[in-house]
């Protein structure tokens, strides 16, 4: 502990995700500390993550002191720890890309936020697995306090991914149809609810399972119009299964392999397939006839890149997106995902629950 403090005083540097903050010379008495889940190399979470006391830099005139309230442990967070994610923070790194905090103090020139506000980081690599953070005000987006805490903590990735995919690729009108695989995933559930709010119909593909009918009922309560298994769709065409809906104009693929091919084959002429994940870790099957005779458009989507591109252009676009998703939560049209809440000091339990492939609920550090 003393060695860590001495090193911080000597270097006068604190790393926050991929950002580096420098501060003027300080004495031990002037330092403020937070507890953080830190890793200094890539590997298995249990071998690399440790809880540490970290010094916070002084509050600058454009800075915010944020008390973290809740932060999920997402699969992407685990990929970062393992070193397999497309973007990786500098070491030492604090885990966590998503979460919500309460503004405790602001710098003299900060106007967009004030003490008492809730805020979420807009970019990946923030390092949300900590009790407090000092960051630039521009690193945060404000969220209303009258939405559920669990919703605020998980709003930055999955609901925003669903929102963008339903708004950016096809001009969807009420009555149109969207088809997706991985429908019971966090993004899939958000797609169902946001599409329903737009009057857009959804065909939702899931893997067959013993509790298939229970899951089907849960998704329909969220607003799903049809829920079918991969096996059902492979045995018949979508036209044979669903006759009262127009053919899907937009397909959303987070699985890849055979499942992604089924989504593609179900699209109407001129439809668009958006791939945002590859959970099956298998190559997307794209028959040549779909491109030649049906003129299907293939697109990819990664929310992190979208945020970075649009933050450079106009940060108000990011705030507008988050505000729109929050409005859906306030109106009850989008509900927070089911979460297992884990106290911060029991972080090993949270990491283990996320690493397990059978994980069915979000794991949230409180």
TrEMBL record:
<keyword id="KW-0809">Transit peptide</keyword>
<keyword id="KW-0521">NADP</keyword>
<keyword id="KW-0275">Fatty acid biosynthesis</keyword>
<keyword id="KW-0560">Oxidoreductase</keyword>
<feature type="domain" description="Enoyl reductase (ER)">
    <location>
        <begin position="44"/>
        <end position="364"/>
    </location>
</feature>
<dbReference type="InterPro" id="IPR036291">
    <property type="entry name" value="NAD(P)-bd_dom_sf"/>
</dbReference>
<dbReference type="InterPro" id="IPR013149">
    <property type="entry name" value="ADH-like_C"/>
</dbReference>
<dbReference type="GO" id="GO:0006633">
    <property type="term" value="P:fatty acid biosynthetic process"/>
</dbReference>
<dbReference type="InterPro" id="IPR013154">
    <property type="entry name" value="ADH-like_N"/>
</dbReference>
<dbReference type="Pfam" id="PF08240">
    <property type="entry name" value="ADH_N"/>
</dbReference>
<protein>
    <recommendedName>
        <fullName>Enoyl-[acyl-carrier-protein] reductase, mitochondrial</fullName>
        <ecNumber>1.3.1.104</ecNumber>
    </recommendedName>
</protein>
<comment type="similarity">
    <text>Belongs to the zinc-containing alcohol dehydrogenase family. Quinone oxidoreductase subfamily.</text>
</comment>
<dbReference type="GO" id="GO:0141148">
    <property type="term" value="F:enoyl-[acyl-carrier-protein] reductase (NADPH) activity"/>
</dbReference>
<dbReference type="InterPro" id="IPR011032">
    <property type="entry name" value="GroES-like_sf"/>
</dbReference>
<keyword id="KW-0443">Lipid metabolism</keyword>
<dbReference type="InterPro" id="IPR020843">
    <property type="entry name" value="ER"/>
</dbReference>
<keyword id="KW-0496">Mitochondrion</keyword>
<dbReference type="GO" id="GO:0005739">
    <property type="term" value="C:mitochondrion"/>
</dbReference>
<keyword id="KW-0276">Fatty acid metabolism</keyword>
<dbReference type="Pfam" id="PF00107">
    <property type="entry name" value="ADH_zinc_N"/>
</dbReference>
<dbReference type="InterPro" id="IPR051034">
    <property type="entry name" value="Mito_Enoyl-ACP_Reductase"/>
</dbReference>
<keyword id="KW-0444">Lipid biosynthesis</keyword>
